[in-house]
Amino acid sequence: MKTIFILLTFLVIQISTEEIHHLRGRRSSTCASRPYNPNYRICCQGNILTLPSGKASTSSCCGAKSYAINYRICCAGRILGLPSQNASSSSCCGTKAYNLNYHKCCRGKIIPRRQSC
Questions:
Q1: HSE, side-chain direction, 13 A CA sphere, residue 14
Q2: DSSP labels, 60-109
Q3: Would the CA dihedral through 68, 69, 72, 74 be positive or negative?
Q4: Lesser CB count within 10 Å: N end or C end of the chain?
């Protein structure tokens, strides 16, 4: 019983009042057996992290780290800045990011889009 009390005290310290309200009845998830509110946090490989963009719909994981998909891209476990203004025109070639409008990935190398592999 004492262990449960200590665990609950620890969880209350880690989350805000709004999150406690949501965890009591609305939307909750678990991350490595620990409860969290996906409206305020994201679970990345067992780590509960703050949503980097403030919204679940524009946040994602890159390994054990979180990032805002509107401004960053995850390439082979590395978080990089978007090479273009638009996430949909950005892609990865190995560990590097590139703009799909001007380049393509050919056997692990970024080359001009019109160039043949």
A1: 16
A2: EEETTEEEETTTEEEETTEEEE-SSS-GGGEEEETTEEEETTTEEEETTE
A3: positive
A4: N
> How many angstroms separate the Cα of 86 from the Cα of each of 52, 68, 78?
18, 13, 19
Element (H, E) at 9: helix 2-14
In terms of C-beta density within 10 A (0-12 exposed, 13-18 middle, 19 or more buried), how is residue 98 classed?
Answer: buried
Model confidence over 23-68: pLDDT tens digits?
Answer: 454 568 999 999 999 999 999 999 999 999 999 999 999 999 999 9
